[in-house]
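Co-fold these.
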Amino acid sequence: MAGHAHNAPQLTKNQALVLGTLESAGAPLSAYTILDHLRGEGLRAPLQVYRALDKLVAIGMVHRLESLNAFVACRHPGCGHHETVAFMICEACSNVGEITDASLEDRLKLAAEDAGFAPKRSIIELRGTCRDCQS
Amino acid sequence: MAGHAHNAPQLTKNQALVLGTLESAGAPLSAYTILDHLRGEGLRAPLQVYRALDKLVAIGMVHRLESLNAFVACRHPGCGHHETVAFMICEACSNVGEITDASLEDRLKLAAEDAGFAPKRSIIELRGTCRDCQS
DNA sequence: TGCCAGACGTTATACCGTTACGCAACGAAC
DNA sequence: GTTCGTTGCGTAACGGTATAACGTCTGGCA
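Predicted complex below.
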């Protein structure tokens, strides 16, 4: 359990349990899978997990993968400042990598503004094959 | 009803009904909303809609918006060749715009390959406010 | 004629996420 | 110290999203 050394605002018990589950999995988990892992710790209802996830996502320690309806612990040791992140999701091994590329973000923002669109949040997810899974 | 003039492989009845519903809505619809619109035409089960959607997405006449769990008719008159498309989703009016920017795609592909990742499909969705909805 | 592939229809089920309650703990304000 | 707002917690019920597992029907074709 490497454990992040974030500027983390004292996680509550449920939040710590959920984060711990995601970190030790090292791969995306659905909310219900997390719940199943935590029934032994006393959690019983989806809402308990979703509330913890909401908070963890809000403070940037967990990311939601929209195309998977799943959640993953943030990989960046220095979490905290969260611009746009692009995810690389391996369809063979489920590993998830993160890209933060300022020029990519700029391009995207520019293209949007050309169309008169004011973006608030960007979702970028690549599905494919990671280095280790390419034969 | 503008109606696409695609190189479309003879849609079946259900596929045509689903596509028509999406085109006349002009905004993203969930599969179940489509189903509700089509109960009058004899459709009864989600699967009938999902099967039609699968086909329409495969031939590029409909896009799936992952962050919305919804579907939208393709806006491009000249559909058919589908590279990466980025969607601009207005949170005020639900309109969806499409961006196809080759240099954006290149940047993304480059960044991925730097990480040894071989992408198959890209999902890019911007949430924000469209031109008309910015006061 | 017999076979096969593809679309279709139905039922049931699994998976994902939220609404609507009410309770308990804590800190700030007065 | 009581009041009050805020935040987190727990439970039950529900609604929205998607698929599994059947079986049927049709058209093409050897």
